[in-house]
UniProtKB/TrEMBL annotation:
It comes from Companilactobacillus nantensis DSM 16982. This is Extracellular protein. Gene3D superfamilies: 2.60.120.200. It comes from the Bacteria.
Length: 822
C-alpha cells in the first residue's frame, strides 16, 4: 500500500495517549481580495495551464450567517491571474488560501440547464506535499446548486469542503454533544449535487483530533466551544438502508490513498447519518459518543496529489473533464460523469498506468434533489483547507465552462498514397510506408453555447518522423470551414515542428459555421532498417472563451525493404481498343506483378494482400487482390470497377484516346510499385444503316404495248453503310394495285443484279438484293443502285394486258447482320 498513511497513524497514536488535550485552531476571518504571494503559490501559478478568463461569468459574495454557532461567515474564493494578482482578466480561481480557509465561486446566473447535455473542462491543484495530508487537505468539489443564497451559497470549512453542513459538535467541560442532523443539513448548500475531489480521509477510525471551530481564543474547558469531529469519510462496513432513498452504489463514507472522488447530495438531511462510538476504538473521541458520517455515491479511491507525468516529474495540475447527461423525458435520473487525469499538462493524452492513470466514472444523479422548476441551476466549485500553516492553496483553471460554449477537437491521418486509408485511434491497420503522402487532419467542432468560439489559436505539434510538404505557394496546410470557405497556412508559421496559426474565422452561429478542418500536407519518413512506431502528438485550439485539444493517432512507419515491387503490362502493347457503347464492352487491364528478388508472395495459406490503384481522368479507383507465387497475374476490368455506365462513357468518349495508369501497393511490406500506363482508344461501335429513296417510278406504257420489262424513269438511291458489320440486303412486296385491286396477274416487280444475272421476281418472300461478308474497322458505304442500268436493278415485268391507270405498290427493304441471318 502507501507509506502516506503513516502520518495519520502516528497522529492517532499521539491523540490516543493525550486524550482530551485538544489543539486549538482559529479561522482566518480576513476579507478576500489580497493577491497570492506565497512562493509556492507563485510557482504553481507560473506552471498553470492556459485557462480562459472567468470574471465575466463567475462571482461570489460572503455567506449568510445561520445562527450564533455559525462561524463560516467569510468566503476565501477569488479570481487571480498567473501572477497571483486579482484581475478582471484572471483565468484561475483560488478557492482556499491559507489555514482553515474555505470558499465558493459560482456562475453569476442560473445558466446550467439540467435538461441539456453540458461539459466542463478544468485543471485542479490540490497541493504537492509529499506524504503529508496536512498540506493537501481538504479538497475541491464541483457543485450544481439551486440554493436561495445564490452566489453567496457556502457550506462549512474543514471536512465540509465549502459545500457540506457544519458538524458543530459542542464541548462543555467533560461532556460532548454531537451536532444534529437537521443542523448539519441546513448549514450545507441547499438543493445541490456535488462531485467531490476529497484529498483527506476524514475518518473516525484514523483520527487526528477534533478540530476547534471557534474563531477566537479558547481556554480549555470553556463553555460553548464547538468542534468538527472530522468523520464524514468513515466507512461503516454496512449497506446503506434502502429506506433512505439512495441508489445501489451509495456507501457510508469513503477511502483512498490521498483521497477519493464521489458524488453526494450535500443539502439532503439523509446524507448525514449518525454512528455510535460506544465500546470501540473510536472512543478516542471521548467525551463524544457519536458522530456523523456522509453517504457517498459511487466513490472511487484516487491519488489526487503527488502524481507523476510520463517523464517522472511531479504532476501538480490534474485535468478533469466533467459531463452532464440530462434525464430522459419523464425521468429525473441524469448522469454525472468524469475523466480525471485524462490529459497531461501539455494536453497530450495521459497513457500512464498505476496510481497516475486516467480515472473515469459515470454516476446516476437525481435531479429532483435540485428542486428546479425551470431546469436552470448554478454551477461552480467549492473548497476548504485544513489547519496546517503550510496547507496548499486550492486552485481551478478552466478550459471551458458550461454556460459559455462547448467545443471539441478530433484528429486523424489519411494516407493518400494508400488510397486515402484513414488512421484513427480505433483503427486496426495503422501502418504507412516510408515516403507515403499523408494528410494530418484536425477537426474543430462548436457543440453548443451562447457565444461564438473566437480567436482560436491553433498549436499543432507535428508527429515525429513526419515531414511537412509545402505546395508551390509555400503553404503547408488548408483550413476548410463548414460554409465552404477556406484559408491557407504558410510554411512561415511552422517552427521547430510546431505549427501555430490563429483562425481568421469564428465558429458557432457565424457565417463560417460550426466546424472547421485543418489539413496539413506531410510525408512519412523512415530511413532506418526497422519499423518506427510514431507516438501521439498533441494539438491545442485555444480561443478567448474555450480551449479544445486532441492528439494525432499513433501509427507505424514501415521500414523500406531491400527489394522492390515490379508491375508490368502482360500484353505486348500498351494500346487498348474500346468500342464506344458496345453492349458487351469491357476494359481489361492486364498486369503482372513480382518482387525484384523473385521471392514469393506466398501460397494459399500465407498470401500477400495487394491493392491496385487505377487512375482514369481525374478519379482514382481501388481494387484488392490476394497474390501468391513468385509471379502474379491480375486482369482488372475498369468498366466494372467504375460501375457507372454514364460516367464510364463520358470518360471514354467516342474518338478519344485516354491514359489509364495503374500501380500496385503491398501495404504489409511498405512497398509501392512503379506505375504503368495504358492508352485507351475509343472507336465507334459496330454500325449498320441503309439509305433508300421513298419513291420509284417506272416508264409509262400505252395500251397494247407488249414490252416485257419496263425500265425505271426516276433515279433511285439505295446504299448500305457499315462498320465491322457483314450484311445482307433483302426486299419484299405485296405487288402492284389499281384502285385497291391487285394487278399481280398483269404485272410484277423483278430484280436483276447485273447483265449476267437472272430476273428474280419480288414477292412476300425476301429476295436477296446484295450482301457484304467482310468486316471493316472504318465506315464503308456500298452504293447498290449506282451500278444499275436500264436493263438491271429493279424492273417492272408485264404479264398481260393491263387496265389504264396509275399503279402503286410498296417495297419493304431490310438490311441485317449477315451472321445473324445465316
Amino acid at each position: 500500500m502507501y507509506m502516506r498513511n503513516h502520518l495519520r497513524k502516528n497522529l492517532w497514536t499521539v491523540f490516543y495517549v493525550f486524550i482530551g488535550i485538544f489543539t486549538i485552531v482559529s479561522f482566518n476571518t480576513n476579507n478576500v481580495s489580497a493577491a497570492l504571494t506565497k512562493s509556492t503559490d507563485l510557482d504553481v501559478l507560473k506552471s498553470a495551464p492556459t485557462g480562459i478568463p472567468v470574471s465575466s461569468y463567475m462571482s461570489n459574495t460572503a455567506p449568510t450567517k445561520i445562527d450564533s454557532k455559525d462561524i463560516y461567515t467569510t468566503n476565501s474564493a477569488q479570481i487571480v491571474d498567473t501572477t497571483g494578482a486579482n484581475s478582471s482578466k484572471g483565468n484561475i480561481v483560488s478557492l482556499a488560501s491559507g489555514p482553515n480557509t474555505y470558499g465558493s465561486m459560482w456562475s453569476t446566473n442560473k445558466s446550467f440547464d439540467i435538461n441539456k447535455s453540458q461539459t466542463i473542462s478544468a485543471w485542479l491543484y490540490f497541493g504537492s506535499g509529499t506524504d503529508s495530508d496536512a498540506i493537501n487537505s481538504e479538497g475541491i468539489s464541483f457543485v450544481l446548486q439551486n440554493d436561495k443564497n445564490g452566489v453567496g451559497a457556502l457550506g462549512a470549512g474543514l471536512e465540509g469542503m465549502g459545500v457540506y453542513g457544519y458538524d458543530a459538535s459542542g464541548y462543555n467541560i467533560l461532556s460532548g454533544t454531537s451536532a444534529t442532523q437537521s443542523y448539519i443539513q441546513k448549514t450545507a448548500i441547499q438543493n445541490s449535487i456535488a462531485l467531490e475531489f476529497d484529498t483527506a480521509n476524514n475518518s473516525f477510525f484514523v483520527p487526528t483530533k477534533p478540530i476547534n471551530n471557534n474563531s477566537g481564543v479558547f481556554s480549555f474547558g470553556s463553555l460553548g466551544t464547538y468542534y468538527s469531529l472530522d468523520g464524514y469519510d468513515t466507512q461503516l462496513g454496512s449497506s446503506v438502508s434502502s429506506s433512505l432513498g439512495f441508489s445501489n452504489d451509495a456507501k457510508y463514507g469513503a477511502s483512498g490513498p490521498f483521497g477519493h472522488i464521489a458524488m453526494t447530495y450535500p443539502g439532503l438531511a439523509a446524507s448525514y447519518q449518525s454512528t455510535d462510538f460506544t465500546g470501540n476504538a473510536v472512543n478516542a473521541y471521548s467525551p463524544w459518543t457519536s458522530g456523523f458520517v456522509l453517504i457517498h455515491n459511487s466513490s472511487k479511491a484516487a491519488m489526487l496529489v503527488d502524481g507523476k507525468d510520463q517523464n517522472g516529474n511531479l504532476l501538480y495540475w490534474h485535468h478533469v473533464t466533467i459531463k452532464w447527461t440530462p434525464p430522459a423525458s419523464g425521468s429525473t435520473n441524469g448522469t454525472l460523469s468524469y475523466n480525471f487525469n485524462d490529459k497531461n499538462p501539455d494536453y497530450s493524452d495521459n497513457t500512464m498506468t498505476g496510481d497516475d492513470k486516467e480515472l473515469s466514472n459515470t454516476i446516476n444523479a437525481d435531479t429532483s434533489k435540485l428542486n428546479s422548476t425551470d431546469g436552470k441551476v448554478r454551477w461552480g466549485f467549492t473548497a476548504a483547507n485544513g489547519p496546517a500553516t503550510n496547507v496548499a492553496t486550492k486552485l481551478v483553471a478552466f478550459d471551458s465552462i458550461p454556460d459559455l460554449l462547448s467545443s471539441d477537437a478530433d484528429a486523424n491521418i489519411v494516407d493518400t498514397t494508400l488510397n486515402n486509408k484513414e488512421i484513427t485511434d480505433s483503427s486496426t491497420d495503422k501502418k504507412v510506408g516510408n515516403g507515403d503522402s499523408l494528410e494530418l487532419n484536425y477537426d474543430l467542432n462548436y457543440l453548443t453555447g451562447n457565444v461564438d468560439w473566437k480567436d482560436i489559436a491553433a498549436k499543432i505539434k507535428i508527429p515525429d518522423n513526419v515531414t511537412v510538404t509545402p505546395d508551390a505557394a509555400n503553404n503547408v496546410a488548408t483550413i476548410t470551414y463548414s460554409d465552404g470557405s477556406s484559408e491557407n497556412i504558410s510554411a512561415s508559421e511552422l517552427t521547430d515542428s510546431t505549427l501555430q496559426h490563429t483562425l481568421a474565422q469564428t465558429l458557432g452561429t457565424s457565417a463560417a459555421g460550426k466546424s472547421a478542418r485543418i489539413t496539413i500536407n506531410a510525408k512519412a519518413v523512415n530511413t532506418t532498417t526497422s519499423d518506427i512506431n510514431v507516438a501521439k502528438s498533441v494539438a491545442t485550439f485555444s480561443g478567448s472563451n474555450s480551449l479544445a485539444s486532441t492528439n494525432s493517432p499513433a501509427f507505424t512507419i514501415l521500414a523500406t525493404p531491400n527489394y522492390k515491387l515490379n508491375l508490368a503490362n502482360s500484353n505486348s502493347s500498351n494500346e487498348i481498343d474500346l468500342l464506344y457503347k458496345q453492349d458487351t464492352a469491357t476494359l481489361d487491364l492486364p498486369t503482372t506483378l513480382n518482387y525484384s528478388d523473385n521471392h514469393s508472395f506466398g501460397d494459399t495459406s500465407s498470401s500477400t494482400n495487394i491493392v491496385y490503384q487505377i487512375t482514369a481522368g481525374d478519379k482514382t479507383y481501388q481494387v484488392a487482390s490476394t497474390a501468391t507465387g513468385t509471379k502474379f497475374d491480375q486482369t482488372i476490368n475498369l468498366k466494372s470497377l467504375i460501375n457507372d455506365d454514364t460516367a464510364f462513357w463520358n470518360l471514354f468518349a467516342q474518338g478519344t484516346t485516354n491514359k489509364v495508369t495503374v500501380k500496385a501497393i503491398d501495404a504489409a511490406n511498405g512497398l509501392v510499385s512503379n506505375t504503368i500506363t495504358y492508352n485507351v482508344v475509343t472507336k465507334q461501335d459496330e454500325t449498320l444503316s441503309m439509305t433508300v429513296s421513298n419513291n420509284l417510278a417506272f416508264k409509262d406504257v400505252n395500251y397494247g404495248n407488249n414490252t416485257e420489262y419496263l425500265p425505271r424513269k426516276s433515279d433511285f438511291d439505295l446504299s448500305v453503310t457499315s462498320i465491322r458489320e457483314p450484311w445482307q440486303l433483302q426486299v419484299t412486296t405485296n405487288g402492284l394495285y389499281l384502285n385497291s385491286q391487285t394487278l399481280n396477274n398483269n404485272m410484277t416487280l423483278v430484280y436483276k443484279k447485273d447483265s449476267a444475272s437472272q430476273y428474280n421476281t419480288l414477292s412476300t418472300t425476301p429476295t436477296l438484293i446484295d450482301e457484304d461478308t467482310t468486316s471493316s474497322d472504318t465506315s464503308t458505304t456500298t452504293d447498290i443502285a449506282d451500278d444499275w442500268t436500264s436493263n438491271t436493278g429493279l424492273l417492272l415485268k408485264q404479264l398481260g394486258i393491263s387496265t389504264a391507270g396509275q399503279y402503286t405498290g410498296t417495297l419493304t427493304w431490310t438490311v441485317s447482320d449477315s451472321v445473324n441471318n445465316t
